[in-house]
Specification:
By secondary structure, the chain is mostly beta strands. It has one domain: Porin (Beta Barrel). The relative contact order is 0.16.
Amino acid sequence: MSKQWQLAAVMLGTFVVLPLRSHALTFRGFGNADFVESSKPGNSGGFIQGTVDLFLTDSINERIDILAETTVHPHKTGLAGIDLERLQAGYLFNDGLRLWVGRFHNLLGYWNLAYHHGLILHTSVDRPEFLKWEHDGGFLPTHFNGLWAEGRVPAGPLKLHYGLMAGNGPQITTSGMQTNNVGDDNTDKAVSFNVTAKPRTHPFSGFGFSGYRSNITERTAASVVLTQTRQMIIGAHLFHAQAPVEFIAEYYRVADQGVGVSEATGTQTSAAYFVQVGYNFREKFMPYYRYEEVRAAEESSYVMALRRNSVTQNFVTGVLPTSAQDHARHIVGVRYNLDVRSALKAEGRYYEVPGGATAGEQIYREVAFQWAFSF
């Protein structure tokens, strides 16, 4: 197993069970420092203060586990934002069932469960554009607040890993898309699921399906309802993450139906997908390539709500005003592992943003460098 995956296995990744030790408190931290240059007009580029990620787990006994993750991230005003990303308590009944309560990462796909907020955990400098966190202008809801049941079930040569969540859906405000952390803003609870099959002989490879259903409300600063959207997301994922080869592919179909508003009330369908490949030489040097694309439904009440409430004017997130618009992105990069807890990354990015009724196609180019580490 590569050093990168040794570190990832330490964290609570895709259905990884924490060691059953009596009251085993573990504290870890993650950080990064970046430099980005972009051809987007008005973007001067430069050094970027990275995110500080504080990660804590505690095995109170053989059945009960606690996990908390808090990030401190930079703000263009010179201030810093503090977010409680995850806070969850879990009870293990057996290998087939563990129940969690709290705030987690949504069960969509593979990436969102395998790679959390520490940037050293994944090969590339950053997440796929449409899978960025809500406060970074991502397209999909990446957090969830409620109940989570998960487990592992043998199925011949495979082992099935399942997860089911029920809880509060997100809302969209002038601050962008937000998880409802203190109560829900409507009575329709969100539901999320993930089923992943892994060969018993290759636990770092697998394929699966995931889905999400929610009622999403857009509100003004005065809490007046602007739009309501019934959303259904269906996704498929395929991955092989055992050295020397890395391959990750995910596809999502996002169906939005406006409810009781003047905007389009029919079902509007968007699509988002990415493919990433890499090869690890001697557990040190890893070149990689990623292609990602979003085809956003122009008449979707959800898409229009995200565009009206873009958050990228506050946080350093890339060249797009929001990922809720048609775009394609090519990334070619290389990662060099200085140590199991420290890596240098460099990548070139090429964006294609199709033109609309008033503007032609826009092409942006970026180069990015990062030193990611854990402590």
